[in-house]
Amino acid sequence: MSLDTVELIAAVEDFFAFKIPDTEAEQMGTVQQIADGVCRLRGGGATTPSRIRHGCHAAIRRELQAALRLAQRPDTAVPLAQVLPAAAAHWNPVLAQLAARTGWQLPSFTDPRPPATSWLGRLFRAEPGRWPDWRLATVGDLVDWTVSLNYARFYHGPDATLPYDVLRIVVGIVAERAGVAVWEIRPEDSITNDLGLD
C-alpha cells in the first residue's frame, strides 16, 4: 500500500475510532471495499433505512420545491436534468440558496467536458477520461452527495454501522483525501487507478 492509501485508511480508522488490521486494509482497493470492510469489522450490515438519508432527503426535496417553485416535491428517482437548468452556471446559485437555507455544504458542479478528439488532446488531457456528467444523476444522488459532504456534521463515527451511512462517510473521507468532488466518486472506483491516490 502506498503512503496516500495508508493515510486514507488511517483517516477512516480515526473517524470510526477503531483499527483496521493490515491484512484487511491490503484487500481494500475500492471505495465500496473500504465501506464493506468497515461494516464487516464493526458488525454492521443491518438493512434498516438510514435516518440521516431520510432527513436529508426530505429537506432537499422541500427546499428544491421552494427554490424552483415546483408544483410538487421532486421524487428521488427524478433526473436532475428534469428539475434544474442544464448549465452548472444556472444550477450552482440554486445550490447556494439551498446551502444557505439548510446550513449544509452542497456540491458545486462544473459542466462536463467533451472528450478530446485529437490524439494530442487525449495524450495531454489533465482530466480523467471518465469525466462524469452530473446531469445524468437523480435527486437521490444529490441527497447522497450532500450526506457525504456533511458526514462529519451528520455522523458520530463510532455509532455509524448501517451500510448506507458507512459508504457515505467513506465517500466523504475519500473526497477530502483525493481532492475529488463527491459527485465524481462511485463506489466501484479504484482508490489508486480511478481516484489517483498512490
Q: Roughly what fraction of the amino acids lie in strands?
A: under 5%
Mean pLDDT: 86
What is the helix/strand order? HHHHHHHHHH
- For the termini, the CA-CA separation is 8 Å
Report on the biggest sheet: none
Radius of gyration from the alpha-carbon trace, in angstroms: 18 Å
- Uncertain regions: pLDDT < 50 for 5+ in a row? none
User: How many helices does DSSP assign?
Assistant: 10
Task: Summarize the amount of helix as a percent range.
Answer: 40-55%
Structurally, the number of domains stands at 2
Number of strands: 0
Silhouette: globular
Q: Pairing-aware structural class of the strands and helices? A: mainly alpha
Protein name: Carrier domain-containing protein
InterPro entries: ACP-like_sf, PP-bd_ACP
Short structural description:
By secondary structure, the chain is mostly helical. It has ten helices and no strands. Residues 1-42 form the Carrier domain.
Question: What would you note in describing this structure?
Answer:
By secondary structure, the protein is mainly α. The protein has two domains: 3-48 and 158-184, no CATH class; 51-110 and 117-146. It is built from ten helices and no strands. The chain has helices spanning 3-16, 22-25, 31-42, 51-68, 80-83, 88-102, 119-124, 139-149, 151-154, 163-178.
